[in-house]
Amino acid sequence: MTTDSPVLLLAPRVNETSRRLRTAAGLRGLRARTATGWQAPRELLGAPVHVYGGPLFGDAVGRELGLALLEPAEDWLVRLPLTLTGRRVAATTLAEARGLRGPAFVKPPADKTFAARVYPDGGALPGPELLDGDTPVLVSEVVRFRAEYRLFVLDGAVRAGSRYAEEAELSVAPLGRDGSEVLAFARDVLAASAAQAPLPSAVVVDVGRTDGGWAVVEANAAWASGGYAAESDAVLDVVLRSAGPLAQLPVADLPFRRELPEVVR
Questions:
Q1: What is the average pLDDT value for the chain, to the nearest integer?
Q2: First-residue to last-residue Cα distance in the chain
C-alpha cells in the first residue's frame, strides 16, 4: 500500500454496519481494515485514512492519523423551530438538570456519558460523584415517538435512510411506505437547518412520527452511527466525508471538527 492510497479503518469492535461498510468499500476498490487495538496502526501514519467507529475509537486514533471528525453542534436541536422539534428543548448543564422537579428526557448532546432517557426528576440523574456538574446536557419535554428513522445526509440532501425503531423498540426496516413522508419532512428540517442551525456536510439526522405528526429526534456523527437497513454504498459516502484527512476538509466544515485529545502512550 502506498502512502497516498486511501484506507477505511474500522474500530476493533465489529458490528453489522462495519461489516457492511467493509464490503461496500471493497466493491469500489477502497482498502478497508479492522483495527486490532485502540491505537493508530503505525503503518497508516501519513496515509489518507477515514474511520468508522464510536467516539472512544475516534478519540484514540484521530489526532495521530491527522483526522477531521465531523459532528453536529451541541445546541443544534435547540436552535430548530418548535414546529420541527415537536417539543421544547433546552441546552444546559447536568448541575442545572439535577434541579428538575418533574419528568424530562435528558441526554448528553454528543458522547454517551450517561443513558439518554426519560428521568422522573433531577434526582435520578447521575450524581456529582459520577459526573461533573458542568457536563453539557439537553433537556426536553417528553414526547412519544411511534416510529423513528435514521437519515444519512451529504451536502444537505438525504442519501440513505432506514427505520430503526417502533414504539421505542428496535425495529429495523427500509423506509417503506412512510418513505415519502419521511423524506418530505427531512427536506423541511434540512432547509430550516441551513438557515438557522447549520450542520456539517456529512451527518446523520434522526426523525420520528409522533401522535401529533413528525418531529426531529436528534443529529449525530455519521462516523459513529449505525446504518441499520440503509443502503451501504450511500452510507459509506457519508461516512468517508464525515471522518477523513484534515487536509481534505472543506472550509465550511471547520466549525464542526470534534476536538481530539492528545493520547499519551
A1: 94
A2: 26
Secondary structure of residue 131 in the 3-state scheme = coil
C-alpha span between 83 and 80 (Å, rounded): 8
Q: Which residue in this structure is represented by grid cell 449505525?
A: 226
Contact (CB, 8 A) for 114 and 131: yes
263 burial level (CB within 10 Å; 0-12, 13-18, 19+): middle
212 beta partners: none
Minimum mean pLDDT range among 47-56, 103-112, 250-259? 103-112
Q: Which helix (H) or strand (E) segment is 164 a member of?
A: strand 157-166
pLDDT surpasses 60 at 208: yes
Rounded to two decimals, the pTM is: 0.93
Distance CA 142, CA 254 (A): 33
Please give the backbone phi and psi of residue 197, each rounded to the nearest 5 degrees, phi first.
Answer: -150, 80
Cα–Cα distances in angstroms (integers) from residue 233 to residues 36, 53, 80, 227, in the given order:
24, 17, 30, 11
Q: pLDDT at residue 3 above 60?
A: no
Note the helical H segments in the chain.
Answer: 16-27, 55-61, 76-79, 82-85, 94-97, 179-196, 232-242
Q: How far apart are alpha carbons 42 and 65 in whole angstroms?
A: 9
d(CA 188, CA 162): 18
- Beta strand 202-210 with 145-154: parallel, antiparallel or unpaired? antiparallel
- Residue appearing with cell numbers 471538527: 257
Dump the DSSP string for 56-90: HHHHHHTTTTTEEEB---TTHHHHS-HHHHSS-EE
Residue with cell 439518554: 116
pLDDT surpasses 50 at 149: yes
CB 206 within 8 A of CB 173: no
